[in-house]
């Protein structure tokens, strides 16, 4: 299992080697992601609030392009609930699950 913004980078190679059970890029409401990220970053107090808001807005605007890139690399865009359902199905069918 690989997770994170760069996980899609390995999708094609995993598929080529027969190691890919599924590849998903989370599709979440952008506003909710912005608010979650801002709340987390504000609580960590690593940067000034205005910097965090500017960065958050930039990421909010970039999110559609990031999702397009991930799907272009072979990941399927899906909501978190759908990804969890599919992974649970994979684990249920696994002999060591």
Characterize this entry briefly.
With 97 residues, the protein is mostly helical.
Count of the separate structural domains = 1
* Main sheet strand line-up: 1-2
Q: Which segments are poorly predicted (pLDDT under 50) over 5 or more consecutive residues?
A: none
Say what oligomer this is. Answer: single chain
Instruction: Look at the helices and sheets and give the structural class.
Output: mainly alpha
What is the helix content? 55-70%
Characterize the overall form.
Answer: elongated
Distance between the termini: 14 Å
Mean pLDDT: 92
> How many helix segments?
4
Please tell me how large the radius of gyration is: 16 Å
Output the helix-strand order.
HEHHEH
% residues in beta strands: 5-15%
Number of strands: 2
How would you characterize the largest beta sheet? 2 strands, parallel
EC number: 2.7.1.48
Enzyme class: transferase
Organism: Micromonospora jinlongensis
Keywords: Kinase, Transferase
Report on this model:
It contains four helices and two strands; from the N terminus they run αβααβα. The chain is mainly alpha-helical. The chain has one domain. Strands 1-2 form a two-stranded parallel ribbon. The radius of gyration is 16 Å and the shape is elongated. It starts with 10 loop residues before the first helix and ends in a 5-residue tail after the last helix.
């Amino acid at each position: 299992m690989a997770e994170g913004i760069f996980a899609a980078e390995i999708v094609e190679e995993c598929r080529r080697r027969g190691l890919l059970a599924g590849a998903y890029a989370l599709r979440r409401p952008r506003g909710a992601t912005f608010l979650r990220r801002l709340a987390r970053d504000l609580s960590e107090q690593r940067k000034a609030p205005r910097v965090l808001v500017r960065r958050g807005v930039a990421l909010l605007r970039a999110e559609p392009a990031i999702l397009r890139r991930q799907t272009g690399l072979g990941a399927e865009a899906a909501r978190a609930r759908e990804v969890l359902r599919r992974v649970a199905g994979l684990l249920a069918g696994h002999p060591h699950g």
